[in-house]
């Protein structure tokens, strides 16, 4: 049986939310430590993830985090998802396969009040849809390759219209 591999450097996993940032650090000896801090605190730090790493490493604010100390940093965030769901930030563009433009609007066709005369649909998360000329088969095979030039042209038009 092989002995577990150890590293001479720290490993970090970070979850950056809209309010708090959680940092989990794995020391070179394999033990785990955690730190929770505000995601936004401009009086104390510019970046919560870096501030959390510095804290766990025992570094002072502004002191560099050098590669000889850190093996890896893996980070996930809900900030973009929250901004999308809360309708904050830039308008969103959806790119989908040609023929599926209305798939998210149609959704599952659930209508809990089937006999209502006026159907109120939920607001869509995107402002505009671009249909990409391409097709992938049911088993993942390429049926029609992506027309990159056509898609690029449509994306630039959306960009010129203010979608970022």
Give your account of this protein's structure.
By secondary structure, this protein is α/β, with parallel strands linked by helices. It folds into two domains: 10-82, 2-Layer Sandwich (Nucleotidyltransferase, domain 5), CATH 3.30.420.40; 90-160, no CATH class. The protein contains four helices and eight strands. The chain has helices at 48-57, 79-85, 103-106, 148-160, and strands at residues 10-16, 20-26, 32-38, 70-77, 93-97, 128-132, 135-136, 142-144. A four-stranded mixed sheet has the order 3-2-1-4. A two-stranded parallel sheet has the order 5-6. Strands 7-8 form a two-stranded antiparallel sheet. The longest helix is centred in the last third of the chain and has 13 residues, at 148-160.
SSE map:
Elements: E1 10-16, E2 20-26, E3 32-38, H1 48-57, E4 70-77, H2 79-85, E5 93-97, H3 103-106, E6 128-132, E7 135-136, E8 142-144, H4 148-160
Parallel strand pairs: 1-4, 5-6
Antiparallel strand pairs: 1-2, 2-3, 7-8
Into which percent range does the helicity of residues fall? 10-25%
Question: What is the alpha-carbon Rg in Å?
Answer: 23 Å
- Report the sheet with the most strands, covering strand number, pairing sense and barrel closure: 4 strands, mixed
CATH class label of the largest domain: Alpha Beta
Distance between the termini: 53 Å
Mass-distribution shape: elongated
* Protein structure class: alpha/beta
């Amino acid at each position: 049986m092989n002995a577990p591999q150890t590293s001479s450097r720290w490993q970090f996993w970070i979850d950056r939310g809209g309010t708090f940032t959680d940092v989990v650090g794995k020391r070179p000896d394999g033990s785990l430590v955690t730190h929770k801090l505000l995601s936004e605190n401009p009086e104390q730090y510019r970046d919560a993830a870096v501030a959390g790493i510095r804290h766990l490493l025992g570094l002072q604010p502004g002191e560099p985090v050098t590669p000889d100390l850190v093996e890896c940093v893996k980070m996930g965030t809900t900030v973009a998802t929250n901004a999308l769901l809360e309708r904050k930030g830039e308008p969103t563009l959806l790119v989908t396969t040609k023929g599926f433009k209305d798939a998210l609007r149609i959704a599952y066709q659930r209508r809990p009040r089937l006999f209502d005369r006026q159907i109120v649909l939920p607001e869509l998360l995107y402002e505009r849809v671009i249909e990409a000329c391409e097709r992938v088969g049911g088993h993942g095979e390429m049926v029609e390759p992506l027309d990159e030039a056509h898609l690029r042209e449509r994306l630039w038009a959306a960009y010129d219209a203010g979608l970022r």
